[in-house]
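User: Can you model how 3-methyl-2-oxobutanoic acid sits in this protein?
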Amino acid sequence: MPKPPLRSEPKPVGAAPGPAPAAPLAGRVTLRTLESWALEGKAFACLTCYDATTARWLERAGVPVLLVGDTAAEVILGFERTTDMPLEILLALTAAVRRGAPHALVMGDMPFLTYHASTGAALRNAGRFLTEGRADCVKIEADASFAPLVKSMTRAGIPVCAHVGSRPQLAGLRGGYGSAGRTADEAASIVGDALALERAGASLLLVEAVPPVVAAEILAQTRVPLIGIGAGPACDGQVLVLQDLVGMSDTPPRFAEPTGSLGAGLVDAARSWIDRVERRDIGGREYVLPPDEDRAFEQALRDSALSRRTPCGTRFWKRTRGGGT
Ligand code: KIV
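Assistant: Here's the modeled complex, given as structure tokens:
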């Protein structure tokens, strides 16, 4: 018997109305929340996030899903490849994001080789994202051959987001990052991967850098929420690397259109600070000594400068008090 349709027709794509007003998350976002949004045809936003302060601001803005991606290897740690991401650091970053965003759905991205060597190791590592990182689910890059692993994880109670299409952890094999699903065979095999992983129990799917028709076919054949990145506007959710969105990446991918200029904003703020420091105009409010303590301190400085005759004491006196003997 054919399955009932999962989703309503997606809301039509319209002209940009300008930034949505900030609407902080009302309650905890769960997998059920995403499922119901997908059913209603309400598209949801997801961004990568790697620290508590940014998580706090993104949650205030109302971003319901935060992905602690292995892109942290590049964006946070300065490596050239996501495959350099150490598990321990990503776990710590996941916990930080959770502390900053207690209501968002937090997804921990399992780094290269943390789920490939054996099912046991994969389960233990995935479990750590839930227990130590306080994540709601883990993401793994996968094709249909990972279906047994997804089944084991789901059986253990670990919600999985299966990432298909372009898979950055395969960059070494493929000779770099790039798109996927641009031949009929490859397109069909990505749709097959998504189906197999959903059947194995994946709670979410994510598809990266494929033509929109591939995402559309996954949407037509599967029922769990589908998050896209560079996969067209029809996906239930959309994710971008935060730094690509806010204008901090030097070479963002073609599908990531920046809507902010925080990089330029940082440069302006840093330049203004350099200027203020050089003009000795550091702003803010200074700490003060109460008047009697201030007099006592002055006296102590005079006494010690006189008794020790240290140039240092004299210099300090002149610099801070604007004179003296
Ligand atoms: O690690 C990451 O940031 C990701 C997104 C690009 C989907 O996997």
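A couple of observations from the model: The first strand starts at residue 44 and ends at 48. The chain has two domains: 31-260, 268-321.
User: Helpful, thanks.
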